[in-house]
Amino acid sequence: MSGGTTLVTGASRGIGAATARLLASRGVDLALACRHPGEEIESVARDCRDAGVRAVVIGADLAVESDVVRMFDEAGPITGLVANAGAAPSLQRVEDMSAERIDEVLALNLRGAVLCSREAVRRMAPRLGGSGGAIVHVTSRAAVLGARGEWVDYAAAKAGTEALTVGLAKEVAADGIRVNAVRPGLIDTEFHARAGEPGRAARVASAVPMARAGRPEEVAGAIAWLLGDEASYVTGAVLDVTGGR
Fold first, then answer.
1. N or C: less crowded end of the chain, CB within 10 Å?
2. What is the CATH number assigned to the segment(s) 5-241?
């Protein structure tokens, strides 16, 4: 995380916003991306600039390849990527899922992660003109638990992202690029409301050994550590931030 700019996707709210603010407090210049820029992400950017760093806002749909390429072009030279953007649609059993829904879930949560990783490597690899760097994917405990009756398609996409993390880490280690993932558990964000169940965090909290949902800032701390020099010998790892669940 020393020097350069870190690109954070899904930076308008939740884990992405918390990560941006934490990195800014540590002096990291930022490129902040979301699908539809508005007051939410502008507020995050202002907070980051108030901390004394550069923070540019970029609108991009990660399911669209041309948007991903443009996003990286607008971000400029980067040494960090937080591939955080993701979403789950309404709770649904697999037998009721349409092909359209499945395609949308995979396009954002898996294809988008692969595209972002590809573009990051093209810009970070010294053999391609870069100076190395670190990539952190934000996955989900759903990748392990399966999310039965809720988002099995989303869980499958996040499991794919974890496989991407492990494989890419081995592929680009010689390029001075570290690739890791953070696997959040139950986190109290707007994610649940956007998926149609605003009370889900409270409903599921009793299943967590720590008996509460996590905070976005608690995930942000793990992301920042994986980006930073203290994790210089860590690559291909998936770090649970789950309260023990």
1. C
2. 3.40.50.720
